[in-house]
Amino acid sequence: MEIRVTSRQGKPRQVQRVDGTLSDQKFVQTESWVVVEHATCERVDFSGRKFDPLAVGPARFMECNFSRAAFRHSTLGDLGRGDGQALYRDCRFDRADMRALPHIGNARFERCSFRGTRMEGWRADRAEFIDCVFSGRMYDCRFAGRPWTDEAGATGRDHNEFHGNDFREAELDAVMFVYGIDLDAQLLPESDRYRRLDRPTERVDRVRAEIARWPDRDLRESGLLILRMVDHPGYREQRELWLDRRLFTDGQIPGLRERILAMLEQALN
Amino acid sequence: MMLGMLSVVPGLGEIAAAADMALYIYQGDYTNAALAATMFVPGGAVLALGAGAKGLRELSTFARAGAKDLGAAVEGSRVLRGLDRAGQTVHEVVSAAKAKVSGWVRGGEKAASDLADVDQWRVSGSVPESGRTISSGYTQAQLRGIVGEEAQGVADRGLGRIDSQITSAQWGAVGKERWRIWQYRGSIVHEETLAALQHRLGRDFVTYSSNNGIDFTFGGIHQIELTAAGSVGRHTRAPRSIPIDQIATYSWVK
Q1: Hey, CA dihedral for A214, A217, A222, A224, is it positive or negative?
Q2: Of A191, A196, A253, B209, which has the fewest Cβ atoms less than 10 A away?
Q3: What is the arithmetic mean of pLDDT over B23-37?
Q4: How confident is the model at residue B31 (pLDDT cuts 50, 70, 90)?
Q5: Which of B105, B172, B211 has the CB atom closest to A10's CB atom?
Q6: B81 to chain A, minimum CA–CA distance in Å?
């Protein structure tokens, strides 16, 4: 028998664990994979650190600075173990690279700043935001008024606090507010690019019924697919739908997206 | 897959681990074979790490010596299983194993570089520190089974449930390129599987991997790629060329 010797593993990765109390210091990072559990960090400077990943469990971060940090594959709160929420109070994430952390986890952000933060693909279904400030481009992010993906009840609550957040200087590129977020309780950008549509369920149902009557099968299927952009179940729990009109441009079939946008806007006229 | 399933059944784990080790030897992966061997003894990996790289090196040396056939490897594993579990050190395990398998054929040269990695585990000390890494006793086959099991649990919720997580921007992209829906569905299965794995194994044990582009890393060492059952070929062929025993699969429920 011929024996072939190969190494299939890369170099072993190490974990740097943080627990206990850290205060008034610059974080000394020894590994890219950092796990923070049962820790209290006060005025700790994490700025410029590169995490791959940062995995946070129950922990408290008070006045910590994460500016210009990079969070790759990270989770800022528990993903379902049910061992408690992570609290970030008066923390700065300014100009941080937070693109590659889809699930934020069970976390609460109070008076935190996300100025110029690169935010992309956030699924903040179990996260709470209170009096936070956002600026810069936010792309394909979803904020939720209740922890709807928490089927096991690990968060122990039935709604996410979400109010007082200032998005006026942010570009909300395909950003979703779902499952009961009160848009009146936020400061939102004023631009012709965005629309707030009341009674979203009624509008979507009416437009869907109308599209379903289109005789051309391809057009009908394409239309229903486009409608899926606002047919998220989370919108059914919204009093108002936050609509990024730019989503309804540059479709495969010229003019179709614009037509559906007009139908949505005029559905209740 | 079968080994992985066996491994999670109480009492069958050692048999699966033995077979796992034999499979590694058969495939010429002696470092993993050595690791699998340490799983026969509760805390064996801890002992191995505690005893230092030397213990693992010796264990790997016997593995590297190779096996004439699969049967010989399994025979070797019986010796390991028969040892007194409580007080054995890895060195004793190695000695017993070496005595039994002294006639095994010689292996290749490249394993020496594998052992350099083994040294690093000990030097850093992070593995025993975390308490949940390799010392948890999982083998590659077990982890592959667990990943597949958790991913299937996500997929079993149905496409409707998965599609409810697709965002507006993603639906917009699907409207332009319909194949993307499977890309997004796959991403959701991966993300949900990660959550399930962290719940089950600990956030200091499992993470998305950035090494070699393989999806999950366990204990900083094991790597498992996750894909739909119909896409395995795309992963095993060049340029990715991921070994089949590093791939966990799930099937869509339509």
Answers
A1: positive
A2: A191
A3: 56
A4: low
A5: B211
A6: 25
